[in-house]
Task: structure prediction
Amino acid sequence: MQFAEIGNTCYDVVLMEKKEFSKIRKFLGKTQKETASLLGVSLKAVCSYEQGWRTVPSHVERQLIFLLSRKRRGSAKRKNCWELKNCPKENREKCPAWEFDSGEFCWLINGTICDCSAKKNWHEKIQLCKGCIVMKQVTNGYLEPTTS
Result:
């Protein structure tokens, strides 16, 4: 278990693991230097993420998962989250994924109504998303589901 400090509060969270970061980078077919350039971080930062010396910041994690989703997309259009999860109409209408017609990117948007409530921050959200069918169709085993 790793800890993340948000404001003045420290949370027990599951952050992207070094093996997940490395596995995704290799699937993308990018060197550490190319990955650093894509993510807008230094080469030293990428090396540190992969060695486990630094935690992967949430903005870097989001970008990396987004790149993975685009690489894995292929020509097939994925179903929207509200279709896959059979969300009730009242939840859909309050959800930003529905509002912005971004059902295959619900995992990228904070404030989505997953399991009947919006999560407070990225760390809570990604823990829920890692076990979700929508995220699984994007990552296909590149991220480990959270075990609590």
Notes: Residues 4 and 10 are 6 Å apart (CA to CA).
